Amino acid sequence: MRDRRLWRAAALFLFVSLLAPSPAFAYIGPGVAAGAVASVLGVLGSIVLGIFSVIYYPIKRLFKKRKKAKSAGRGADAAE
User: Fold this and answer.
1) Measured between alpha carbons, how far is 35 from 63 in angstroms, rounded to an integer?
2) Over the stretch 37-47, which tens digit does the pLDDT of each residue have?
3) pTM of the prediction?
């Protein structure tokens, strides 16, 4: 019984100590901050470009088919 209380007390102490804020006393220079911003923008940009390329490819094929159909139709008219 006493052993169980000890574990509960230790778990409660650990939980409370993890919730308590502690100062970091750290300095982030402008170079590190700019690198972090560039990394985030790079990841977001790659996601946007990936989505755009997936959407753009079928549209490009559709325009190519239309252009081919128009040029084939004009070729048949010119041959007559």
Assistant:
1) 40
2) 999 999 999 99
3) 0.49
